[in-house]
Amino acid sequence: MRNNYKLLITGNAGMIGSVLADYFYKLGFSIVGIDDLSGGFKRNVQSFVRFYPNSIEDAKSINNIFEIEKPKYVIHTACFAAECLSPWIRGFLAKNMVLGTTNIINASVNNNIEKIIHFSSIARYGDGKPPFKETDSPQPKDIYGIFKLTNELDLKEAYDHFGLKYSIVAGHNILSPIQNFEDKFRNVAAIFIRRFLNNENLQIFGDGLQKRCFTDAKYLCDPIFKLLKNFNGELFNIGSDKFYTIEELAKIVLFVGRGLEIESQSKIEYLEPRIEVKEAIADHSKAKNLLGFKDKTDLEDLIRQMFESAIDLKITGRTSTMDYEINKNMYSYWKI
After folding, report:
1. Average pLDDT of 307-336?
2. Distance CA 106, CA 97 (A)
3. pTM greater than the 0.85 cutoff
C-alpha cells in the first residue's frame, strides 16, 4: 500500500535516479520521474514510476508536471556531469545546470514542496586541501564546480526568501551496474569497461596518479532518506573513504575483464595530462555521525557487476558526441 508521500526524482532514467526510485518505492513512496533521456535510458525507468520524458530546461513543462503531480518531496539528480569537459561547453552547462536547477527551484516554491534534496559535487572544493570538509571554503577549479556552487547559492536564497527547505549532497565518482557505458566524457570506470570490451586501450590522462574514491550508488539511499525531514540548509559529503589512483582503477578493470575470460588485447595507454583536481578525496565524518552513513563498496566486485551488465546490454563502440563551443586548447583525444 502506497503512503501519502509522493517523491519526484529528476534524472530518473540515470544511474543515481533509478537506484533512488527503487529504494523509495520499496519504502512506500509514490514515484514521479523526469528525464530527457539525454544521458539516461528508458530501460532504467521502473514500471512503478509515473515518468515524464521532459528536460529540466523547459520551464513550462516542469511547472505543468509539478502542478499535475503535486509531489511532497523532490530529489534533484539531473545534470550533465562532464566535469573535465565543462570549460568547452559553458553555454550548454549554463542551461542544463543553472537554468535547469532554477526551473526546479521555481516549481518547488510555487507548488509548496516540503523539501528538496539537491545533488552537488565535491567539484565545489576544487584544489582545496583533502580530505575536503563541509566547513572548507569552496574554490571550484572548473565550470562544472562553479555551476554546482551556483546551484547551492540559488537554493540558499530560495530558502531565505520563500522558506524552501533543502539539503545538499556532495557526492563523487558514484558507480552502479546500470551505469551509462556509452558516454565518451563521463564516468571513467564505465569508459574503461567499454573500451576493454571493444578491444581498445584504457586511456589515462597524465601519469595516472590522480586519486579518486568510488562509491556504489546503493549506499547513498539510506542517508538521503534521513535528509528528507532533517538538517535543513546543510551540506553533506557522502561517498567512499577509500581512494584509488586512476592507474590502479585501470589495472582493476584489466584484472576483472581478463578474469571473466573476455577476449581483449586492451592495455593501459598514457596520454597528455589535463587540467583537473589531483586528489578528489572528501571527509565523510558528518554523514557518518549524523546520518549513520556506511559505505561498503567493494570496487573489484562492483567492476565485475558492471562488466556483466555491459555485456548483457551488448555495449558497442558507439559513444555520445558533443558540440564544443570553444575549440581552443582542446585535448587531442577529444578533438572531433
Report:
1. 85
2. 14
3. yes
